[in-house]
Amino acid sequence: MKDFTGKVALITGTTGIGLASAIRLAQGGATVLACGIDEAANAALALDAAARDLAIHPRKTDVSVAAEVEAAVAEAVSRFGGLDIIINAAAVHPFGTVVSTEFETWQRCMAVNVGSIYLTAHFGVPEMARRGGGAIVNISSVQGHNCQQNVAAYVATKGAIHALTRAMALDHAGQKIRVNSVSPGSVRTPLLELAARTYGGEGVSVEQAFQRFGSAHPIGRIGEPEEVAELVAFLASDKAGFCTGCDYRIDGGLTAGIGVK
Question: Does the annotation count 154 as an active-site position?
């Protein structure tokens, strides 16, 4: 279904949910500027997009750097005629408490996970307003609601995304720009692979760790990036025209209950 024909989207992150979202929107007819710092991932996405005949244009971008984000937005406008959709999926996931996390790591996590959302909006919202409105979807996490131990920096950013989403939604509703966030549970992404290697245990494969992670979800498995991308696409589409300022969980029931059996 060509639900994004004529739309121009800027998506941060070219792996995991960002990758899946870029493919889903392009399959719907959007022209996508995919901004990622991982050159190998960018190259792989370019090859995949060409093979599928999708209008996805990867761009090497450090989304925590203002000048690079400004240039990316300018490229979307100059090459493709404007900007209608922003999907903020770029993230880093350090492990540690506030004691064990180095300050530089804390700063980098804040700059990428939250700062990039500020930057894409700072430069992108005026362009969206010129087009008569648009939609922004920020990828958060269930860890912005309930969290594990030893992830202080990461969960701080995910909670901040919920708050920033509400603020942006209120500030820009008058410009017909809708802003929502999505909070996935465990999803098959490079960040979850990192968690699997960190917490999987000696001799435990990534897939075995994924099975254990999945068993914590009432639905009995981890999610797939494409499933999250469908929710992202809905929120970015005109079908979600009355949705703004909210967080939408896609977590296999993980946060529906309590851990007492």
Answer: yes
Question: pLDDT of 209-236, one tens digit each?
Answer: 999 999 999 999 999 999 999 999 999 9
Which tens digit of pLDDT belongs to each residue from 156-176?
999 999 999 999 999 999 999
Task: Mark whether 39 and 96 lie in a shared domain.
Answer: yes
Nearest to 32 by CA among 3, 52, 51, 59: 59
Count Cβ atoms within 10 A of the Cβ of residue 173 and give its class: 0-12 exposed, 13-18 middle, 19 or more buried. middle
Domain span holding position 237: 8-185+224-252
Neighbours of 3 (CB within 10 A): 17
> Which member of 118, 154, 199, 248 is catalytic?
154
Q: Are residues 166 and 79 in the same domain?
A: yes
> What does pTM read for this prediction?
0.96
* 41, part of any domain: yes
48, 172: one domain: yes
